[in-house]
Specification:
Blueprint (H helix, E strand, L loop, with lengths): L3 H9 L2 H17 L7 E4 L6 E7 L3 E7 L5 E8 L3 H11 L1
Antiparallel strand pairs: 1-2, 2-3, 3-4
């Protein structure tokens, strides 16, 4: 499952980053527990935990697990969009 923000963020990445992001997304789909998480983001009391994955050194992917333990990709970007991505996560979660 993808948010609109994740789809637009993926589309805006340069092609090499898109390929690496797609590889990470495939791994999350196949075996999410095996994907190395850089950090857990606790967005405040009562909010859901969001996980950050780094790809291609500067790429960032944020996801959470829904009630069925399925992965929901929240946003995809780079180190340059990280601040905007974190503000977005604070707003929607």
């Amino acid at each position: 499952m993808f948010t609109d923000r994740a789809i637009s963020g993926l589309a805006e990445l340069p092609e090499p980053f898109q390929i690496k992001a797609e590889e990470v997304i495939h791994q999350l789909n196949a075996q999410a527990d095996a994907v190395p998480v850089k950090r857990k983001l606790f967005r405040g009391k009562g909010k859901e935990t969001v996980f950050e994955i780094v790809f291609a050194r500067k790429g960032r992917l944020y996801f959470r697990r829904n009630r069925d333990r399925k992965v929901e990709i929240l946003t995809v970007g780079t180190k340059n969009t990280q601040d905007k991505d974190l503000v977005y996560l604070d707003r929607v979660l």
